[in-house]
Amino acid sequence: xxxxxxxxxxxxxxxxxxxxxxxxxxxxxxxxxxxxxxxxxxxxxxxxxxxxxxxxxxxxxxxxxxxxxxxxxxxxxxxxxxxxxxxxxxxxxxxxxxxxxxxxxxxxxxxxxxxxxxxxxxxxxxxxxxxxxxxxxxxxxxxxxxxxxxxxxxxxxxxxxxxxxxxxxxxxxxxxxxxxxxxxxxxxxxxxxxxxxxxxxxxxxxxxxxxxxxxxxxxxxxxxxxxxxxxxxxxxxxxxxxxxxxxxxxxxxxxxxxxxxxxxxxxxxxxxxxxxxxxxxxxxxxxxxxxxxxxxxxxxxxxxxxxxxxxxxxxxxxxxxxxxxxxxxxxxxxxxxxxxxxxxxxxxxx
Length: 350
Prior knowledge:
Blueprint: E1 12-17, H1 32-48, E2 53-56, H2 69-78, E3 84-87, E4 90-91, H3 97-111, E5 115-120, H4 127-130, H5 138-153, E6 158-160, E7 168-171, E8 184-188, H6 192-201, E9 204-208, H7 218-230, E10 238-246, H8 250-272, H9 279-286, E11 293-295, H10 297-310, E12 315-320, H11 327-349
Parallel strand pairs: 1-2, 1-12, 2-3, 3-5, 4-5, 5-8, 8-9, 9-10, 10-11, 10-12
Antiparallel strand pairs: 6-7
Helix pairs in contact: 1-2, 1-11, 2-3, 3-5, 6-7, 10-11
C-alpha cells in the first residue's frame, strides 16, 4: 500500500556521514585529524543552508575514523543554533547504555535540546573485538542494552538487572534531561524483529537502505505501524537513510562517485561478503528503482520524494561522501542538498 508522509509529523530532511576519509588534489588521504576538523565545518554549513539534521555514524577503521561521534557533534552544536545533531548510528551492542545516555544527554544540553540518537546492533562489527565483546552474543547484547537505555530515558533513579552488565539499584544517572527524552531511533537494515523491537520500546524507526529497490522496505513501515498499535502506542516517525552524492549534473555526480564507491565496496566485500559492483549494477542502483541517490539536485529530489511517499516516511537522511572524494566535493554536495534538493522535495510533496 502506498501512503503519503504522515500529517502527524513534520517532514525532516537531513544528511549523515561515517566520516569517510577525504583525499587531497593528488588523491592522497588526509590526516584523520583534518578529516574530523573538516567534518565540523560540514555541520556548520549544513545548518547555514537549511538542512534539518546532521548525523555521524560510529566507525573504528582507517577509512572511517569517527570513533567518538558525540564529541564532534558537540563541536558542531556549539557553533550552530538550529540544526538537530545526532548519531547515525551508535553501536549500542558494544557500548555501555549508561555512558551513551550520559554522552547524548550532555549533547542535548550543549545544543539546547537538539540532540537525537539512532541506536543500532552493528552492521560494521569492528567495535566488537575492539571492546572485547563476543559476536555470539550479538542479539542478547542489543536486546538487553536497549532495554536499559529505555529505562534511562524515563528519568529518576534507575533500577535494572540483566546478564550483560552490572545491575543498577536506584541509581541516579546524570546529567538529568532538561525537557523530557530526546528523540531515539532504532536503525533497521532488514530484520522484522528489529522493527518490532523499536515499536515495543516506543522508539522511532530508521530504515537503512543501502542496496536494492527501496520499495521492498514498505512492508517494514506497515509492520511498524501495526506493532505500535498492538503495543498500545501512539504513531511514531519513520525515516530513511540511504547513500548518495549530489553534483551539478547527473554525469558529474556519477563520474565522481562511481570509482570511489566501487573501491570501497570491493574492499568491504573481503570482510562482509558484498558482491563487487559492476558499472551496470551501479547504474541500476542510481536509477529510479535503486537505492543510491546520485545525480543532479532535480534527480535526487525526485527520487527522495518518490520513496518517502512509497515508504510512508516523513524523514530522509542522505548519507553523503565516499572514501576518496575531496573535501570540496563534500561541501558542494551539502550546499546543493540544502539549497536545491530540500526546497524541491518540499515542493514535490506539498
